[in-house]
Design brief:
About 75% of the residues lie in helices and about 10% in strands. The protein is built from 3 helices and 2 strands. A two-stranded antiparallel ribbon has the order 1-2. A hairpin with a 2-residue loop joins strand 1 and strand 2. It starts with a helix and ends in a 10-residue tail after the last strand. The model has no long low-confidence stretch (mean pLDDT about 85).
């Protein structure tokens, strides 16, 4: 079969399915639509997992590790800054001394 014939058969089968769908009652049409959607999600996910390259998986792992390291670094910077600054802490609230000084009138 040539490419044109395969495409013609594919289009004809899609048209036949759509014609049958139009003849179904509403409840059956909803069930058919849900089944087709479910099958599409399962199939497309399997195809994506099958054809995802090794380089893409490695890049994803490297990116996750970089994100983890950046998060840890940001948390450590925040901890150091809170220890180094002149900060009064009342419970869960930081009260820096700068907020306690009187403001300049305008």
């Amino acid at each position: 079969m040539s490419g044109e014939q395969v495409l013609a058969v594919l289009v004809a089968s899609v048209c036949a399915v759509m014609l049958v769908r139009l003849c179904l009652p509403a409840s059956r049409r909803i069930q058919l639509d849900q089944a087709v959607r479910r099958q599409w999600v399962l199939t497309s996910g399997a195809v994506r997992r099958l054809f995802r390259s090794r380089a893409a998986r490695q890049a994803e792992a490297v990116q996750a590790e970089q994100a983890r390291q950046a998060t840890e670094a940001a948390i450590e910077r925040a901890r150091r800054a809170s220890r180094a600054a002149d900060v009064v802490r009342e419970g869960n609230v930081y009260k820096p001394e700068a907020f306690q000084k009187p403001r300049k009138p305008h």
